[in-house]
Amino acid sequence: MRLKSIGLVCLVLVLGALLGGCGCIQQSMKGEAAPPPPVAAQLESSGSVRLNIEFDTAKWDIKPKYDDELKQVADFMKGHPQAKLEIQGHTDNVGTEASNMKLSQERADSVKAYLVDKFGIAGDRLRAVGYGPKKPIAGNDTEEGRQKNRRVEAVVEKTAQ
């Protein structure tokens, strides 16, 4: 699948963010880290994005502070009418595997429902999948690591060329 090129500079920023450099690639005059590239830019260039949505333990509700993040996903979908996304839910390793698989599915379903209900994205363009604790991005031995693992990612499954 080949997505539209959005320019070398943006691609470098996205790749840096995906490799863990997020914010370390470029610093402002004040020494502050540069913000990560917008959601749409990441989806267009790499085909996936980790949404900045974190969940409390054993919860799947979406807090109002994440509305802007999800609006960016909706804007991408509206700008790419042939695009389909897999919404991936993830958990930390606290609890049983069965409960974490169910919880991760509920998190993915919650994001899908939010995009459908709040932003009018067609449900058949979104597929929610729960991966439980199977794909951690951080260690589960600290609260900070577990918080990072309680997340949702969006992956482009199909888009027009």
Please describe what this structure looks like.
With 161 residues, this protein is an alpha+beta fold. The chain has a domain at 47-158: 60s Ribosomal Protein L30, Chain: A. Helices cover 39% and strands 16% of the residues. The protein contains five helices and four strands. A four-stranded mixed sheet has the order 1-4-2-3. α1 crosses α2 (39-46) and α3 (67-79) crosses α4. The N and C termini lie close together (8 Å). Residues 1-31 have low confidence and may be disordered.
Entry summary:
With 161 residues, this protein is α+β, with helices and mostly antiparallel strands. The chain contains 5 helices and 4 strands, in the order H-H-E-H-E-H-E-H-E.
Named at the architecture level, the CATH assignment of the domain at 47-158 is 2-Layer Sandwich
SSE string, helices as H and strands as E: HHEHEHEHE
The Cα radius of gyration reads: 16 Å
Uncertain stretches of 5 or more adjacent residues: 1-31
Largest beta sheet, briefly?
Answer: 4 strands, mixed
CATH homologous superfamily descriptor of the domain at 47-158: OmpA-like domain
User: How many DSSP-defined strands?
Assistant: 4
Discrete helix count: 5
Query: Can you list the strand order of the major beta sheet?
Result: 1-4-2-3
Residue fraction in strands: 15-25%
Estimated helix fraction: 25-40%
Secondary structure category: alpha+beta
Distance between the termini: 8 Å
Could you say what the CATH topology of the domain at 47-158 is called? Answer: 60s Ribosomal Protein L30, Chain: A
Which CATH C-level class of the domain at 47-158 is it? Answer: Alpha Beta
